[in-house]
Amino acid sequence: MGIKSVGITVTEHLLRQQRETPRATGAFTMLFNELVVAAKLIHRELNKAGLNDIYGFTGETNVYGEKVQKLDDYAHRTLIRRLTQAGQLCAIASEEDADVIEIPAEVPRGPYILLMDPLDGSSNIDVNVSVGTIFSIYRRKKETGPVTLDEVLQKGSQQVAAGYFIYGSSTMLVYSTGQGVHGFTLHPAIGEFFLSHENITMPARGRIFSVNEGNYCYWDEGVRRYVDHLKSPEVHRGGPYTARYIGSLVSDFHRNLLKGGIFMYPADRKDPKKPHGKLRLLFEAAPMAFVAEQAGGAATDGSRRILDLEPETLHDRVPLFVGSREDVEEARRFVSGQEPASEDQEG
Ligand SMILES: O=P(O)(O)OC[C@H]1O[C@](O)(COP(=O)(O)O)[C@@H](O)[C@@H]1O
Ligand SMILES: [Mg+2]
Ligand SMILES: [Mg+2]
């Protein structure tokens, strides 16, 4: 059996899309190439984590009151440094920064706004479990002048591209520019991302659910009933769903993207300061919702489509139910109380 020839590189893939996009200037391709370089630098640091002084905390806390890990900070600074150099951005916003990050005056600006979760799955960094980087790209609304907050606070449906890097057994890039979802794998020896998963489509229904059940006692009735339903002996002509929870959104999402299933981070009453759950609308929920929908899946906050949500602040949190279309629709019915109680739930 011949050796599988490597696919096309991510740059070739971008250039193909650029040729098919009228009025494309190459600005997006240049920006994206810098994103890829930054991810390779993060991959390199992660791969030798434990041998380099990258474990542990910086001593800082971020706008969410979370202790910042050294790798959160390294990823944040590396992405900003590389991306601002691309000369295609007019603003950046990061999960690790309270405010919109200005592009240095000496750097040319461009039409794009990039939002990012530099390192997703921070609680898994120092235990060698896969983590990721999430990105979301918008076009600014105005042609010129200083960028205003409303240009950054756009609905997820306005994204021109979104995706993530996953640093796992292999390092992958999964992205969409609205023309399907494509996966690339980093060839460690060649140092290039090659197309390995073209036109990924998510199964309409899965048999996997991913949620931190440790929060069960804090959930609303509808969420509890939905998860009980997935664990009941008879679910959709098959036994109970399989539980899988890595604790890194990128990794849990990626598995369900390929195998089908649903990831949930519901709202809970654990922390009155976080009535809308833990995950961030702009840095986590909206980009994952964009990829999910492009792959035939769906994403909701329990009643509304994530991509229709109007952000009020840079750091809005939102309940997230994302994955296979039929599973997300069923979750929405339970969570919004439209699913009648079955015999065994009537107790
Ligand atoms: O530990 P919990 O409460 O289950 O939360 C896990 C979730 O929190 C996150 O780690 C939050 O993301 P960050 O690591 O970027 O802060 C998600 O990746 C993950 O899905
Ligand atoms: Mg995150
Ligand atoms: Mg993070």
From TrEMBL:
Residues 8-198 form the Fructose-1-6-bisphosphatase class I N-terminal domain. One of its GO terms (biological process) is gluconeogenesis. Mg(2+) 1 binds at residues 95, 117, 119. Homotetramer. It is an enzyme of class 3 (hydrolase). This is Fructose-1,6-bisphosphatase class 1. Mg(2+) 2 binds at residues 117, 120, 284. Its EC number is 3.1.3.11. Its main location: cytoplasm. Pfam families: FBPase, FBPase_C. Its cofactor is Mg(2+). Binds 2 magnesium ions per subunit. The lineage of its organism: Bacteria, Pseudomonadati, Thermodesulfobacteriota, Syntrophobacteria, Syntrophobacterales. GO terms for molecular function: fructose 1,6-bisphosphate 1-phosphatase activity; magnesium ion binding. It catalyses: beta-D-fructose 1,6-bisphosphate + H2O = beta-D-fructose 6-phosphate + phosphate. Belongs to the FBPase class 1 family. Residues 202-334 form the Fructose-1-6-bisphosphatase class 1 C-terminal domain. The gene is fbp. Pathway: Carbohydrate biosynthesis; Calvin cycle. PANTHER family: FRUCTOSE-1,6-BISPHOSPHATASE-RELATED, SEDOHEPTULOSE-1,7-BISPHOSPHATASE, CHLOROPLASTIC. Substrate binds at residues 120-123, 212, 245, 278. SUPFAM superfamilies: Carbohydrate phosphatase.
